[in-house]
Amino acid sequence: MEDYLIRVITTNKEIRALAVRSTDLVNEGQKRHQTTPVATAALGRTLTGALLVGSLIKSGDEIILKIKGDGPIGTIVADANQEGEVRGYVTNPNIKFLKNKAGKLDVARAVGKGQLSVTKINRFKDPYEGKVALVSGEIAEDLTYYFTSSEQIPSAVGLGVLVDTDLSVKAAGGFLIQLLPDASDETIERLEENLKKIKSVSKMIESGFTPEELLDKLLEGFEYRLMARKDVVYKCRCSRERSSELVLSLGEEEIKKTLQEQGQIEVQCHFCNEKYRFLEEEINELMSNQSAE
């Protein structure tokens, strides 16, 4: 089964819902950063959450989801766009194996206390950033609190990542449910009952649930219509050209000093770990072209 996301609205126009399977792209993130299990779970949840948030913005815009806690994992960052592309990283991808009392990966302890921020980047406006304190470090609960507190939209977020014994990702996915204005008490009560029945998103994905089948469970008793379906993928937008611009931004003095010490300048992308090496001859050509412009 491929990774994809769907967005629906109930026919009574009282609930908006999204669901996504993100197993392959979270696996790609694990490979790119060589994360240990707890870091894989934390990064995977953040990547999946960013996709859900990014699917609510306008085409061409981007969102940056940042979780900055005082736990051993450090900062977790993911950015996504409306087209279903996402990328991300963690400050410390190799943290020790942490389990909670239930025997599950202890993402909350890895994240610790801190802040969650969502930055919306619009091509025609200044970026807008919303911030909330982390309520648990579990990420799904923190996103739920963000929507309810910062955007005043009653929401429920579920995120799950199941890591295999060989460190790969067996299953990953998530959902976002939002009440629309004027939702009735009956709708709210039925939705709450449905949410109580959902125990583990990752286990459902592992057992073969599609995003549609996941929403069938979440929206049991409601009729809904599909608004959008799109493939989702881990995709970095770094390039050699962008990296060369970063090299030139160092300034002539710093460039010469680095070349004297190392014989080259290497730029490594935080999001995908791709390395771009620039030797002296190429850098001199870049600087010459810059001067000619």
Summarize the structure in words.
This protein is of the alpha+beta class and 293 residues long. It folds into two domains: 4-234, 3-Layer(bab) Sandwich (Hsp33 domain); 240-292, CBS domain Like (Alpha-Beta Complex), CATH 3.90.1280. 35% of the residues lie in helices and 30% in strands. The protein contains ten helices and 13 strands. The protein has a six-stranded mixed beta sheet with strand order 7-6-3-4-5-11, with helices on one face. It has a five-stranded antiparallel beta sheet with strand order 8-9-2-1-10, with helices on both faces. The chain has a two-stranded antiparallel sheet with strand order 12-13. A hairpin with a 6-residue loop joins strand 6 (114-121) and strand 7 (128-133). Helix 1 (23-33) crosses helix 2 (37-54).
| Secondary-structure element string | EEHHEEEHEEHEEHHHEEHHEEH
Q: Main sheet?
A: 6 strands, mixed
Domain module count = 2
Q: Look up the CATH topology of the largest domain.
A: Hsp33 domain
Q: How much strand content do the residues show?
A: 25-35%
Classified by CATH, the class of the largest domain is: Alpha Beta
- Structural class of the helix and strand makeup? alpha+beta
Radius of gyration: 21 Å
Helix content: 25-40%
Number of helices: 10
CATH superfamily of the largest domain: Hsp33 domain
Provide the low-confidence segments as ranges: none
Any idea what the CATH architecture of the largest domain is? Answer: 3-Layer(bab) Sandwich
Shape: globular
Enumerate the strands of the largest sheet in spatial order, edge to edge or round the barrel.
7-6-3-4-5-11
